[in-house]
Amino acid sequence: MGAEDTQPLIEEPKVWTCSLVLAISVAIVGGSFQFGFQTGCMANTQDILYTKFNISHMTMSVIVSGMCIGGLFGGLLAGAIADKIGRKRCMLVNNFPFLIGTALMAVAWNEYSFILGRIINGFACGIATGVTTLYISEISPVAVRGGVGVSHQFMITFGILVGFVLSISKLLTSFPHYYQVYFALPALPALYQLLLLPLCPESPNWLYYNKEREDQAREALTKLRGSRSQADKEIDAMIRERTSVDSTNTASFKDLFTDQTLRLSLVIGVALQGAQQLSGVNAILNYTPEIFKSAGVANSDLATGLVGGINVLMTFISVPLMDRLGRRTLMLGGLAFMAMSYVGVAVSETVHSYHKDVTWTGPVSMVTLFTFIISFAIGPGSIPWLIVGDIFTAEVRGKASSICVGANWLFNLVVVLSYDKLNSALAPNTFFLYMGVVVLFLVFTLLFVPETRRKPVEQIHREISEQAARCPPMVY
Q1: Where does residue 447 rank: exposed (0-12), middle (13-18), buried (19+ CB within 10 A)?
Q2: How far is the C-alpha of 442 from the C-alpha of 207, rounded, in Å?
Q3: What is the CA radius of gyration of the chain?
Q4: Model confidence pLDDT, tens digit, residues 40-79
C-alpha cells in the first residue's frame, strides 16, 4: 500500500455535544447496564434460590444459563430488527421485554416462572447488546469512536459491579423480601430509557444507508455534532464510502458468506466474540464466590466485590487507550496477560486441593484473578463489540452484527452450561483448559486481526480485501 493508504481519509474533530452525550448515556444505561446487571445478579443469590425453590444443581445451571438461551435468540434477531425499524425504535420497544422479565423474576412463585423471566430478560439483553453497539458506533465521530465504543463495556462492568454489591449476604438477609426488590431493580434503567430516548436522534447511518433519507440523516448529524458544516462533511464522506466500496442497499446474509472480503471480516468478528466468551470470563463472573472458596479465600464476598470494582476501573482506564494504542495492540496484550493469569489461578487451585493447610494459595488466586479481569477489561472485554462497527460497511453492518452477537451469546451459553461439568471432571485443572483456549485466540489475533484505530470503514475494507486475497480460501 502507498503512504496515502496509511492515513484516514477524513480527520474529524473531537466534538462533544449535549445531544451526543445524552444519546450515548441513554443507550448504554438502558442496554449495556441491563446486560451487566443480569450477568452479575446470580453470583451471590444462588443460595437464596436453592432455599426458596428447593432446586437441584442442574436446575440452577438452567437458571444461570437462561439468560444466555434468551440472549442467543435476541442477539440473532437484533440486527434484522434494527435494520427494519431503526436503531432508536428497536431500543425503545426492547424495554418492554425487560419490564416483563424483571416482573417475573421479582414475583416468581416457582422455579419455572423465574427461569421464564430470566430467559425473557436474556432475550432483551441479546437485542440490547446488538443494537446498542450499532447505535453508539454510528452516532460517534471517527476520532473518538473507540472510546465511545468502550462506554458500552464500561456500563456492562458497572452493571456487574452493582449486581455484586447489592447482593452481598448482609443485604440479602436484611429483610425477608429484599431479594425481590433486588431482582426488580432493572425496571429503573428501562423506564429511564423509555422516558429519554425519544429526545435523542436516530442513527444517521441507518437513515442514509438503509432508508436513503439524506435530509433526515443530515438533520440528525447536525444535532449530534452541533454544526451544520460538520454534518455536511460527514454526509459527503458517506457518499464517498458508498461509491468507493460499490455498496448497494441489497446486501444480504448470503453476501457475508460468498464475498471474499466480507467472509474474512465475518470470521474476524465471530472469532473475537469467541475470544471474549470462550476465555471463560462469564464462568468466573457467575461463579466468583465458589472459585475463591475453592482456592482457600476466606472472605469471598469482599473478593467478589473487588473483582467487580477492578473490572469497572480498568474498563474506564481503557477508554483513552483505545484511540491511542489501538484495538489490535490492546487485544494482543490483554489475551497474553489473561493466559498468564490463568496459570496462577490453576496452580493455586491445584495446590489447595492437595494441601489444604497451605496459606499462600488464597492470595495468589485473588491476585491472578484480578490480573485476569484487568487484562480482559483492557482489551478482549471491549474490542469484540467495537470491531463490528469498524470492519463492516453500513449496508451489511446490521446483518453482520446479528451473526456476531448471536455467536457471542452462543459461546456464552456453552461456557455457562459446561463450566459445572468441566469443573467436576477436570478440577483442579479446569483453568489450564481455558488458558489453552486463550492462547489459540491470541495466535488468531496475531495472524488475522487488523488495526482499525481512527480509520474510516472504506480504508479498513480495502485492507481486509488485500489480506483476503493473500489467504487461501480454506483458511477462512
Answers
A1: exposed
A2: 37
A3: 22
A4: 888 788 888 998 999 988 898 889 889 999 999 999 999 8
pLDDT tens for 321-373 read 887 888 899 999 999 999 999 998 888 878 877 777 777 777 887 788 889 98
Q: Which residues of 309-348 are buried (b: 16+ CB within 10 A; e: fewer)?
A: bbbbbbbbebbebbbebbbbebbbbbbbbbbebbebbbbb
75-87 core/surface letters (b: 16 or more CB in 10 A; e: else): bbbbbbbbbeebb
The C-alpha cell at 278 is 470462550
* Phi, psi angle pair for 460, to nearest 5°: -65, -40
How is residue 295 written as a grid cell?
482456592
The reported pTM is 0.81
CA distance 130 to 145: 16
Residue 230, judged by CB atoms within 10 A of its CB (0-12, 13-18, 19+), counts as: middle
Question: Could you give the CA distance from residue 164 to residue 180 in angstroms, rounded to a whole number?
Answer: 15
Nearest in space to 99 (alpha carbons), one of 115, 117, 81, 111: 117
